[in-house]
Structures
1.
Amino acid sequence: MWSSLSEVDEAVRGCTDCSLCGGRTNAVPGDGDPSSEIMFVGEGPGYYEDVQGLPFVGQAGQLLNELLTEIGLKREEVYITNVVKCRPPKNRDPQPDEIQECSKYLDRQIELIDPKVIVTLGRYSMDRFFPGQRISRIHGTARRTGGRMVVPMYHPAAALHQPSLRRTLSDDFAKIIVAAEATPAEPVPEEPDDPAQQLSLF
Ligand code: URA
């Protein structure tokens, strides 16, 4: 098993475990501060991410930077990655087998970074933690799962297509800081059906 984030990065860059590797210019392992308390998980690289080998550097990335600025964070202060590390052809949705194959990298990144708060961007990332839920119902709601807080959000690209979601994203991003401050340093065991485990931030 990979013992450091740079070993995960190297494994991702050389990965040929699914067909997405055939279309990539660069794999996109992740970027940011590996000791951050806050980790963002998007869907998968798009055109610019594939060209640069970095996550969220296109239009959605610009909006992500703005949203971070609004809550007083710089992107270098958080860690950003995706559910799949190679660009799906024509930016199509990642397929279940691709997500499954790539999950070993995300799982290990989470273990190594050990963030207090994971922010999921979009439904594929939300599905990893809350399968079967609807993003329209749970966005902006911090929930404890797997011993840490996870806050599902709409994908920033959704606000590029539907401008009314821009405000929703701003409101939801404000809850990230509250979730981080409300999270104890030592993880609390998960109690899935206990409503007290959900932070009432709203
Ligand atoms: N959208 C994503 O989900 N991830 C990226 O890295 C870029 C756009």
2.
Amino acid sequence: MTWADRLSPQVRSLPPSGIRRFFDIVAEMKGVVSLGVGEPDFVTPWHIRESCVYGLQQGYTAYTSNYGLLELRHEITKLFERQYGVSYDHRREALVTVGVSEALDLAMRAILTPGDEVLIPEPCYVSYTACVSLAGGVPVTVPTLMENEFRVTVEQLEALVTPRTKALLIGYPNNPTGAIMPKEELASIADFAKKHDLIVISDEIYGDLTYSGTHTCFSSLPDMRDRTILLNGFSKAYAMTGWRIGYALSNPDFIAAMNKIHQYTMLCAPVTAQIAAIEALKNGQCAKEQMLREYNRRRRLMVDGLKKIGLSCFEPKGAFYIFPSIKETGLTSLEFAEELLKKEKVAIVPGDAFGTSGEGFVRCSYASSTANLTEALTRIERFVKNYL
Ligand code: PLP
């Protein structure tokens, strides 16, 4: 028996992330323009970094409550009250986690019994199906279409719901498509969740990065607050990916259950990052809006540029990704990404890394400088000309 044979079957059957594999190749190459990674190119605003430095000077170096600093939880719940009119008790209904990544894992492990099914609109963030599988659940993906602006419909969900369906996992604004869901359509999804008595895990990490209309917080919809595990964090909107700080908001039973796992596995989120997160919530609005304006400018540049090249492309409404179709080139997503990297040294992510319905598309992140984006568009145009 080899060491590999001794691994848990759940881990063995998990495919490695398509993104990472690709970026291991990119890391070895010189002169690459990368539109690959899903993180802001901005450094965390100085006042946020400074608050962390000051916290260290003051000696904040110890564990915090498992739930997170009370002040941070209070700032989070105040924000939700202010921004979305939904109230949570910061003592019992908020949990600070190591990024949304941890919150996602905790949510799945807290609610799933082996064999439970979770509906997940696809293309979706790479961790969704993996987290469900690792918790013993069965991911049931629901393909969304560019023709429908990558929005999931109740009809699609109704076709796949079964007596084993326990939850629905949604992430809007969406990574990788940039899709958002209008409030009325989210309200229909809420009715569907109620009808089938489903828990809704709503990953709203890109909620503040919305360019068209305003973001609807799922738990603000009628009767959804207690049924929803709301996930959010600081990585994207505040350019704080490396700080590893996120949170979950839900009813006290779900939060206590998630905290049970969190206290045995993580204990607490890093105190320095929690201090910085308080500063972000108290004084980070201006910097956040500045970054949003810049992303919006770059979004326009990419939409216009890709259309000019001849790639059909849904105009993203949120997050910082654009997901053009490459079907007309006759290449698969992987072939397109590999050839583009080899011939023109532009790194993008093949769409099938986000599920089989992502085949025929590629994800480009526009969280990159205008100079990089312009150069990438020139190279993509040169590359695509060989196929169209
Ligand atoms: N959710 C989505 C949709 C993401 O795109 C990402 C990161 O790319 C995460 C969650 C993970 O976020 P965090 O850095 O808070 O763990």
3.
Amino acid sequence: MIVALSGGVGGAKLSWGLERSLANEELAVIVNTGDDFILHGLYIAPDLDTVMYTLADLANPATGWGIANDTFHALAMLERYGQPVWFQLGDRDLAIHLARTNLLRQQRLTEVTATLAQALGVRSRILPMSDQRVETRILTPDGELAFQDYFVRRRQQDLVHGVRFQGAEQATLSPEVLAALAQARLIVFCPSNPIISIGPILAVPEMHAAIASAQARKVAVSPIIAGQAVKGPLVAMMQGLGLEPSAPGVARLYADLVDSFILDQQDAHLAPQIAALGLKVTATNTLMSDHSRRRHLAEVVLAQA
Ligand code: FO1
């Protein structure tokens, strides 16, 4: 068993590479649910959907989230009814939020996700980080914002001086997550945002403890290449939090949990700073701009086991 810890787009792409590189071994992807929220009365889990759509080869290649070639007729009608439309829900995408919201009345999020993933033909196990609600909250000069308010509605323009994960202290691990971590021979920290994507996963106290005590080898991939995040507000966010926005800055956040660290070859000169933390360092091409590069990065990751 290989276990990946993932946020949205970057984690989904590496998970795709891992899944397609594994012959008989199973992949379990533990996914951030700190971004989940209710809109139009629907339970929306963007990172779970991004991982499922990517593994099902349905994802919109332009954005990485949502479904390829989707249309937005329902959203246009919602606008006529005076409903908020800052969160772009496509017509095909809408179905998963309807189904999930309905199924959640009877089942845990882990069970609902398994049903949806199976329906899409996904071969890997997609595991929400917890069945309890954990909500990422962003602290800004304008006060505390709900995650999607900060990320999508306000377009990541606010200065971030803190992040908190409401509910994390009370959240527990599902039996499915515990079993996956116990069986893992390799745990992969995907190149997702360490603050708002991997951060919520590790904020569940049992998760941190279960990863720390797992027998598996543990490897992280840098989401920062040459001082730039591949996607999203990571660099500004790390600066706002007083962290160094670089591969070594990310490695420091994970140093107590991982054995090895993969950074981009453009950052190879920073390897000694990471080796000084006691980690094995590998430099390679980490930008997953096409399918063959996803597989390449996955193979370098799997070689760490
Ligand atoms: N991200 C955006 O920047 N704008 C959107 O309108 C948007 C809609 C959306 C709909 C479904 C879905 O699964 C994801 C969506 N995302 C959108 C992405 C998502 O909210 C964020 O990228 C993640 O929460 C951060 O990982």
